[in-house]
Amino acid sequence: MWFCHDLLPFRTGESKYFQKFIAALKPDYVILSRTKLSQCLIPELANEIQEKLVTILEQRDVADVVLTTDAWTSKSCDNYEALTAHFICKNFMFRSATLGIAKLDNQTADGHVKLIEKLVNKHKGLMERLVWLCPSYN
């Protein structure tokens, strides 16, 4: 979870200094490999968080939702877009959650709209509560 919450790269676990630090805390602990993190642990955590997000967004105590998007091109020239929801819960806590990241095959306005609709429609009742969309393109 630490890698996800602090947005750390997976290579952190491969650092000899990180490994020495962990060994000083608990010598018999086996640090997970980059592969184990990326192919097992992260998808499990993502599914768990997605289920919680669906529950939160389907509750009627979240009245209004604002979306932001971010689009970018990878080093291999693939285009991606992320969609993030921002809302205030009934306990007045401000929350942000990424609704999804997807490959953007069509870089036209229509392509962006279709991708955003696809990601929003995964969440029942979300479309009716949207109040604003702020795109950001790097």
From TrEMBL:
InterPro entries: ZnF_BED_domain_contain (IPR052035). It comes from the Eukaryota. This is Uncharacterized protein. Its main location: nucleus. One of its GO terms (cellular component) is nucleus. GO terms for molecular function: zinc ion binding. Keywords: Metal-binding, Nucleus, Zinc, Zinc-finger. It is found in: Nucleus.
